[in-house]
Amino acid sequence: xxxxxxxxxxxxxxxxxxxxxxxxxxxxxxxxxxxxxxxxxxxxxxxxxxxxxxxxxxxxxxxxxxxxxxxxxxxxxxxxxxxxxxxxxx
Amino acid sequence: xxxxxxxxxxxxxxxxxxxxxxxxxxxxxxxxxxxxxxxxxxxxxxxxxxxxxxxxxxxxxxxxxxxxxxxxxxxxxxxxxxxxxxxxxxxxxxxxxxxxxxxxxxxxxxxxxxxxxxxxxxxxxxxxxxxxxxxxxxxxxxxxxxxxxxxxxxxxxxxxxxxxxxxxxxxxxxxxxxxxxxxxxxxxxxxxxxxxxxxxxxxxxxxxxxxxxxxxxxxxxxxxxxxxxxxxxxxxxxxxxx
Lengths: 90, 242
Description:
The structure holds 2 protein chains of 2 kinds.
Chain A: E1 2-6, E2 20-24, H1 28-38, H2 42-46, E3 47-48, E4 51-52, E5 56-60, E6 63-64, E7 80-85
Parallel strand pairs in A: 1-7
Antiparallel strand pairs in A: 1-2, 3-4, 5-6, 5-7
Chain B: E1 8-12, H1 18-28, E2 32-36, H2 61-72, E3 77-81, H3 90-95, E4 99-102, H4 107-120, E5 124-130, E6 133-139, H5 147-150, H6 162-165, H7 169-187, E7 195-200, E8 205-210
């Protein structure tokens, strides 16, 4: 099952400029593994050895995965994943 | 009389976001507008910091911005603070205002402003913009969801360089205006607290989504651990673009 992943501008250098990409997997963690195969380097920007990096938020639809099971959050058909990094600038 | 006609609003960081936010708030007719920044106008600021012109380069930002705002909205009382928000002054400074608008360029100040406002029980509207990505979040005076619910602590990991990341001029105009809009909405009592506004400057797509309150949040969670300002929590600012 493919899931659409919305890529923030800061990470689009890793997706050839695409703001949305597809990746396969039954859980958020699976999708990130597949994303990294298709767009090498993305996983390292999203995860560290403890899980989702603390300045990254990953949403499935409108739900922050921290509250829905983290990387084990299960996906269903039609789900969309959004990645929101902390930024400081202005 | 508007809902904000007697409100006192503090703008922390008179930069790319603070300039359009201050212009919008002054034109909207807030009662008093505080400006806090210790920086000088640099030539590299001019493409995005709307209150400054070529002749301001080298001047202190706060009086330079105040001079322009006086011309734009002479009825607004301006209060000048030529200092950055520091652990030593944060709570006393934000306590003098009804709402804080924070558009600083480093995480240390963002977390300090979040903590000081929670301690002083003041609402705050955070905003940031890097490259083509912008965010804004309004936080209420009585706890979460707060900035620490969303981004737990000052990032220390592998930060890209701020100068490399860059800020696209029009982005801060859009996000700074949205920040002012959120500030006025909070003052008007509208239900915008805890909504994260994101804007993608490449696709011009914007989204609003609810940020859940995190039970384990160190600032507003069930076992809150931050009750005062400990300077060790706020390390030298870095710029992280993810």
